[in-house]
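Section 4.2 – Deliverable D4.2 (structural model, holo form)

The reporting period included a commitment to supply a predicted holo structure for the target in complex with iron/sulfur cluster. Inputs used:
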Amino acid sequence: MSMAYDSQPQTTVTATAAPQPQPQGPAALAASLNARLRDASPQGILKAALELFPGRVALVSSFGAESAVLLHMLSEIDRAAPVLFLDTGHLFGQTLDYRKSLVEKLGLTDVRDLRPAYQDLAVNDPKADLWKTNTDLCCDIRKVRPLDRVLLPDFDAWITGRKRFHGGSRLNLPVVEAGAEGKIKFNPLANWSKAQLDAYMAEHDLPPHPLVEFGYPSVGCWPCTKPVESGAASDIRAGRWAGSDKTECGIHTPRAATAAESEVGGDI
Ligand code: SF4
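Output (structure tokens):
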């Protein structure tokens, strides 16, 4: 779809300025947008994303420990904006409950549940225990492929909740970047600290994910998420794939060769 890469925003540093037509690829466009938005507020970045890519940008949310902040900001700007939720089939029941209650509280009207395809599960994970032997392939069929099946044809840009304070590969996270899948990615909370998130949650009386009080500073799938000792809480993602080198699920990294087509759809 042409809008994303045929347009460029004005150079003036305002989050709401209208784009000026100028052909450029995703990397150049992302660099231009990042230069313009890197010091903008999260709300200003969200507004810019929605205005630059009307109907072609989605917020991807895990409905995890910190998700309420960005979802609340979005709801105050446009409750009908698309939200993509990766329901891997291995999520905690508390996450599914939280997704439902938070959507109702915030009044979001276009939350789409993305699930693995029957064919991928039947071929690669018929016993639903692939996570024990191959977490990369498990994430690929349960997260990356479901996301790409929707993101690649239907959107030109997406919005993530990643922050620099998460550390690891996120330490140098820009506010706007070109994603490995070729789309523009907005990271409105890249600059924010844990203290700012906590303050925002309190100010807006947002409900925490139910597992936070049980020592889960980051919440993913139940087989791959452990509670974190309070002394190690400075590493927010310490409980994710604990004991392995894996730190990311794959939706933010270059696609593996195995992430090929699985055109036969269907939800679990
Ligand atoms: Fe599978 Fe674990 Fe990845 Fe979830 S986080 S998709 S269970 S490997």
